């Protein structure tokens, strides 16, 4: 027997099977059901409704109900339904097409049906929106309410202004924004920086809202929400009293506020600090207000776990903040306050931004920053003055 005769004897049909081309509508239905099948295989159950479940699970549950209610979909997906997902109840009150599309985040036109999805948000966008929407009650809002009251008063007086988010898309701790009609304050970074899916660094933020709620969300999610919100705005820092203003910048122009240089004195009862209180100073730069920067100083090793007094502040414009801070600390490195302290958990730490330097020298440092002559200077402990590095 020939090969063909043998195969025919065995009942094997050699005629090529006709594969029916699927319509775009059918392809979309199949793709949607594959997501549901994948969920069933990962979680061991069908997706369920309810606010206690992840938003994507709820969307899959809505989609599954709709597929169960459409006979043509059940017929199309029968071979794929190895878990019997389509055999369940379609729900007591099935959604119509428009309601289903709204549940899925789709902008529908009158001709749309369940398979003609247009303007569907990506999973990442839906996740970002969910993070913004799930704000919880802020238990320690009393700590932050004075900040919101102050910012609101400064906005009303014109001390602060708002500008459309986008020209400067950075988000830092102590920044204020307007999001969905609420003032939003970036209180702190939670945990360690993380690597986002796009390869860039990201971080989870604690964001407090003026309505007494808070959320912990990724910096990228907050940026995305501010971009999407037509009313999203950045709240600028107070504009009064800039010290280092570039001469080419118009007073009313759209200049970049770099931050504030501040000088602090500690109220710590530590023996070394108490004995040299008039000399021990912290010199730093913040992108926000000094008041917000030192809030909670008594619990922060950066501020020696004690309240502080603000000795002086200087507004910076168009200055590289990290570079300037490094320069100041390098000039004063020889008189850096070097003492081991213990935090409230008994863990030792050494402060890095406190210096044994008299106020007149700090005043000279500020003057030299203003006229551009600080580079190349060092503090001489013998003469208690600034001298060129070559002299030491």
**Major beta sheet summary:** 7 strands, antiparallel
| Average pLDDT over all residues | 76
Q: Pairing-aware structural class of the strands and helices?
A: alpha+beta
Number of E strands: 16
First-residue to last-residue Cα separation: 105 Å
Bin the helical content: 25-40%
Rg computed from alpha carbons, rounded to a whole number of angstroms = 31 Å
Order of helices and strands: HHHHHHEHEEEEEHEEEHEHEHEEEHEE
What is the global morphology? elongated
Strand content: 15-25%
Structure write-up:
This protein is 32% helix and 22% strand. With 392 residues, the chain is of the alpha+beta class. It has 3 domains: 100 residues, no CATH class; 108 residues, no CATH class; 150 residues, no CATH class. The strands form 4 sheets. A 7-stranded antiparallel beta sheet has the order 1-6-5-4-3-7-2. It is elongated. About 13% of the residues have low confidence.
Brief digest:
The protein contains twelve helices and 16 strands. It is α+β, with helices and mostly antiparallel strands and 392 residues long.
Break the fold down into its secondary structure elements and pairings.
Layout: H1 3-9, H2 24-43, H3 55-69, H4 71-77, H5 97-103, H6 123-133, E1 136-137, H7 141-157, E2 162-164, E3 176-179, E4 182-195, E5 201-209, E6 213-218, H8 219-228, E7 233-235, E8 242-244, E9 257-266, H9 271-275, E10 280-286, H10 290-293, E11 308-317, H11 321-331, E12 341-342, E13 348-349, E14 354-356, H12 359-371, E15 377-380, E16 385-388
Parallel strand pairs: 8-11
Antiparallel strand pairs: 1-6, 2-7, 3-4, 3-7, 4-5, 5-6, 9-10, 9-11, 10-14, 12-13, 15-16
């Amino acid at each position: 027997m020939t090969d063909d005769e043998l195969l025919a004897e065995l009942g094997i049909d050699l005629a090529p099977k006709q594969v029916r081309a699927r319509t775009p509508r059918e392809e979309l239905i199949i793709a949607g059901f594959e997501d549901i099948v994948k969920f069933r295989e990962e979680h061991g159950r069908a997706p369920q409704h309810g606010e206690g479940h992840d938003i994507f699970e709820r969307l899959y549950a809505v989609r599954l109900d709709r597929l169960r209610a459409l006979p043509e979909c059940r017929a199309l997906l029968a071979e794929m339904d190895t878990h019997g997902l389509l055999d369940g109840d379609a729900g007591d009150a099935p959604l119509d097409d428009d309601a289903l599309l709204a549940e899925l985040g789709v902008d529908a036109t009158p001709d749309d049906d369940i398979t003609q999805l247009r303007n569907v948000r990506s999973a990442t966008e839906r996740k970002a929106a969910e993070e913004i929407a799930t704000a919880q009650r802020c238990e320690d809002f009393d700590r932050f309410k004075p900040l919101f009251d102050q910012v609101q008063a400064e906005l009303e007086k014109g001390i602060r202004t708002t500008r459309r988010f986008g020209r400067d898309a950075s988000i830092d701790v102590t920044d204020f924004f307007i999001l969905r009609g609420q003032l939003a304050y970036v209180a702190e970074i939670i945990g360690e920086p993380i690597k986002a899916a796009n390869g860039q660094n990201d971080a989870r933020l604690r964001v407090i809202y003026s309505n007494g709620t808070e959320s912990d969300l990724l910096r990228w999610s907050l940026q995305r929400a501010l971009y999407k919100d037509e009313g999203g705005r950045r709240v600028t820092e107070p504009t009064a009293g800039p010290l280092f203003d570039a001469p080419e910048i118009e007073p009313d122009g759209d200049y970049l506020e770099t931050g504030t240089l501040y000088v602090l004195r500690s109220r710590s009862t530590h023996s070394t600090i108490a004995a040299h209180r008039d000399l021990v100073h912290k010199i730093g730069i913040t992108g926000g207000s000094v008041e917000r920067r030192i809030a909670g100083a008594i619990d922060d090793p950066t501020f020696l776990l004690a309240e502080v007094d603000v000795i002086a502040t200087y507004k910076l414009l168009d200055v590289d903040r990290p570079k300037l801070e490094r320069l100041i600390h390098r000039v004063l490195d020889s008189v850096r306050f070097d003492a081991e302290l213990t935090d409230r958990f008994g863990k030792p730490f050494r402060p890095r931004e406190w210096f044994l330097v008299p106020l007149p020298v700090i005043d000279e440092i500020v003057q030299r920053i203003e006229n551009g002559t600080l580079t190349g200077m060092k503090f001489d402990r013998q003469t208690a003055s600034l001298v060129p590095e070559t002299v030491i």
